[in-house]
Write a structure and sequence with these properties.
alpha+beta, three-stranded antiparallel beta sheet, about 110 residues, globular, 50s Ribosomal Protein L17, Chain: A
């Protein structure tokens, strides 16, 4: 995908981090991270919710192959995705919360709408 941010990590580490962040976002409803990481997690979380809306065995297995916790995949298909049946995308929101104290990195909260 062109325009993918590398986030200063090799591909395997970057994908592992994004998978974990997506799983935690779906589990807790919101996470606090840097703006660039939030912008990378948003499309992945939206893709998982879209898979959840399909409610097929194939889409469940696709979600399981990406998410790091099986109970989060079950929660995605049983609770989260049915709430978004009336929406055609736009399931996440990124709210800027200012710089981090230690290194002044721009922080944001990414949350499910």
């Amino acid at each position: 995908m062109p325009g993918t941010r590398k986030l200063g990590k090799p591909t395997d580490q970057r994908m592992a981090m994004l998978r974990l962040m997506t799983t935690e976002l779906l589990d807790h409803g919101q996470i606090k991270t840097t703006i660039t990481r939030a912008k990378e997690v948003a499309p992945l979380a939206e893709r998982m919710i879209t898979l959840g809306k399909k409610q097929t065995l194939a889409s469940y297995r696709q979600a399981l192959s990406f998410l790091t916790k099986e109970d989060v995949a079950k929660k995605l298909f049983d609770e989260i995705a049915p709430n978004y049946n009336h929406r055609n995308g736009g399931y996440t929101r990124i709210v800027r919360i200012g710089p981090r104290r230690g290194d002044s990195a721009e922080m944001a909260i990414i949350q499910l709408v």
